[in-house]
Amino acid sequence: MSTAKFPETIEAFAINKTGGFEVLEKLTLPFPKVEPGHLVIKVEWIGVNFIDTYYRQGLYPYTSFPAILGKETSGEIIALPTDPEVLNSPDFQRMEYKVGGKVAVDFLGTHSTYISVPWIKAYPITHGVSTRIAAAGLVQGLTALTFFEESYKVKKGDTILIHTVAGGLGLLMAQLGKHLGATVIGTTSTKEKAELAKAHGVDHVILYKEEDTVKRVLEITNGVGVEAVFDGVGKDTFESNFEMLRRKGTLVSVGNASGAVPPVSPLKLLPKNLKLLRPTMNNYLVTPDEAAYYGDKVFELISSGVLKINIFKEYPFTQEGGQQAQKDLTGGKTTGKLLIKVVQD
Ligand SMILES: NC(=O)c1ccc[n+]([C@@H]2O[C@H](COP(=O)([O-])OP(=O)(O)OC[C@H]3O[C@@H](n4cnc5c(N)ncnc54)[C@H](OP(=O)(O)O)[C@@H]3O)[C@@H](O)[C@H]2O)c1
């Protein structure tokens, strides 16, 4: 496809090397290569995620530089794929993409003014959800949905523990857990965050800096432990999770907010026949059926109010704005979602 109708350059948050916040730059880069199976999208909103900081620091690797940061955006389709095989496939057609249609995207390297992405990575925004809310809810909403359906199937009567419960992902997991009929226990650092978590349905909030988390969880569960733990903290909380799980429980290692979990022996699972998973949402959204099912479901749950999207702050699309968002997120003071507005009204 010719890129003649597109601008020659884009503005993007990118890095030329891994490192501290200062390596995040706002760069002018060539318009991305448009493959025949790609949708081209003019970006309106950027969602900030913890994973952006892992890539910036080098915990997760980039293969070449400059590397565009970010994996969550929303905006308007400005060009459809040109590959006739794609255009004629029932999987593509059921998504009803059209020029001018709004989509939310989960694809690495998309914090920029224009993006070109494989069509399956763009979720049509349905059920009347705005592009602002879609950029705030897509990645964490899909993570909550897929992890509660596939990593551990949360069901009525379960008691589950969610670390970082007042964060972007945590608040969505808490609401989904309640919707599915579970009792939700969550950990967080401050009373203010605890109040927010309770307002989003969390049954028991543990202030882990003041209270003994293991003791409280065992008290709440009459010494039995929880069916599942969803742990986005990582290094600092990993070990104690084993004391809070019941026999045949499931530990879902969700992320590394405090650092990566060191290698672990399978023998650790033996005393209670536990299950341990370290999934990533992307690997649950690979086939067209998975994308169509979860994509529509996340917007339905947002639109119906089951998943209320809590936006912490909107940052400007400037180098300082990009750096500040990552500083705030890793500084542990935020609640809910951090957004960056790309298109000005
Ligand atoms: N596997 C996947 O596919 C996937 C997808 C999305 C997100 N995630 C993971 O889920 C976790 C939450 O992501 P999020 O974007 O929603 O972030 P977030 O929860 O909004 O922010 C991180 C929170 O982690 C807590 N925290 C605990 N120890 C920390 C430390 N040493 N440094 C910084 N924060 C610390 C803080 O909350 P308190 O004040 O309550 O301690 C902080 O606010 C991350 O680990 C992320 O990588 C994984």
TrEMBL record:
A Pfam family reported for this protein in Swiss-Prot or TrEMBL: ADH_N
Domain of life: Eukaryota
Keywords: NADP, Oxidoreductase
The keyword Lipid biosynthesis appears for this protein: no
Domain Enoyl reductase (ER) residues, every copy: 19-340
SMART domains noted in UniProt: PKS_ER
Protein name: Enoyl reductase (ER) domain-containing protein
Gene source species: Lentinula lateritia
